[in-house]
Amino acid sequence: MGTVGTGTAPGRGLTWSLRGRGPDDVPVPADEGPPGGLPARQATGRGVRVCVVDSGVELDHPLVGPVESSWVVVKDPESGAVTVEPTGTGDTCGHGTACAGIIRRTAPDCEIHSVRVLGERFSGTGEVLMAGLRWAVEQRFDVVNLSLSTTRTRFAPELHGLADRAYFGRTVIVASAHNTPVESFPWRFASVISVGSHQEDDELHLYNPEPPVEFFGPGQNVSVPWLGGRTIRTTGNSFATPYVAGLCARVLSGHPRMTAFQLKNALYLSAANVHADPRPSTAAGDTRDDSEN
Amino acid sequence: MLTSPSFHAPGDAARHELLQSVVDVARAIFGAAASSVCLLDEEADELVFQAVSGEGEAFLVGRRFPAGRGIAGWVATSGEPMVVDDLSRNSSFDRSLAESTEYVPDALMAAPLISESRVLGVLEVLDPSPRRGRASVSWTCWRCSPGRRRRRCGCSPRTRRPPADGAWRANAARTHWSCSAAWSDCCGARAEGPYAGASRGSDGRFRRAGAG
């Protein structure tokens, strides 16, 4: 959606400053407000490309709808080469289908793409996840849903670099926090939108004032599509994540020029627990509200 | 990792006994129909039943299935636990695999067995007892009878909402320790089975009778 370069080298000579250039040289068109200042229509995710990096997505599931493209990461057992290839195999266990279904019901008009990083042989699981995520970032998807993480620290530096690259390239990685208290990646990085579960029945999201997990979404007893065109109910951060990914798709469809940091701020401002409460006055014992500010 | 599901060496018998006690206790704690431990055979890319308690106990040990398949496969590859309900109504979750074990559960909990970032296998609990407060049934307390529930716990079965004081919380496992803050106030629950005589503290952990 964005067109910002993702390279790490300075564009004009070896400087990171704006030497010799002024504001007119770096114009940034901001998103227009809604026409006539009226409230915007409900955004549906139209025009936003979302990639589900998971176990694949079942084709023709009625609760998922069209899957624009399906890919699989394959590792050659002999050469060790890792490639991303088109596939028609759908989903190997149901997890990716569940994530895609939650994205679909949250942002019904978005484009869903799938890259399968699970379901093949175990060797190099972290490597395959890495390759799938790297591929998704290179394809410049607007939103990448990653309800997975790796506990293997040797992948952490490369994942960190990839997450930062996605952040500046306007590919928003929405990453699930691990369900158990272990160190894993990339959800720990500030350049992704990290998601855990809350226990409310309602579909809402919360901001966590105590990161590293930044947002909570509905992840308990969630009805999700599963293999064979059916549904099940399940629990876990994996299912809170696509809800937030769907919200990102909706926001981006209404505000296509948003950067990743603006998007994170939009999620913060719209979180159910973020309120403009009366501010405490500097005078002890005195409080005032925000009505005149 | 594993080359054979059978136990030949002297240490294997001790390991089998340990795994069997794990699944027996897991099944007892959750009041479940079955519990099992499958370990990963990386070479064959298969999961192998190593210990089973309850349904399938007589014949499942040693049986193998593809490691990338089904919920256990996802848990093994992702290293994440998973809780699923309504499986039997939705027969496709990998019914062929479930039927090969001659038991199709309605619900299951699966957790990875992890050692130093490596997934060794999967611990599963099939059909944990609804009586013990699974949130999928309602916000019930496994010890409080329905007539006493509101008065004693303040939970609301009709709306499935926890009381405002936050004393109730359905956790990921949705087991009977979902009452997180006020066990003694709520029901004074005591454990059964192998933990008879123990009670749960506010943190959900068992405490032996008489212990702080």
TrEMBL record, chain A:
Would the keyword Hydrolase turn up in this protein's UniProt record?
yes
Which superkingdom?
Bacteria
Q: Where does the Peptidase S8/S53 domain lie? A: 45-283
Q: Please tell me the species this chain comes from.
A: Streptomyces silvae
Keywords on record: Hydrolase, Protease, Serine protease
Tell me the protein family, please. Belongs to the peptidase S8 family.
Q: What is this protein called?
A: S8 family serine peptidase
Pfam families reported for this sequence: Peptidase_S8 (PF00082)
Entry annotated with the keyword Transmembrane? no
Q: Which residues form the active site?
A: 54, 95, 238
Compositionally biased spans, kind Gly residues: 1-10
Please name the taxonomic classification of the source. Answer: Bacteria, Bacillati, Actinomycetota, Actinomycetes, Kitasatosporales
Database matches in PANTHER family: CEREVISIN-RELATED, PEPTIDASE S8
| Record region (Disordered) | 1-42
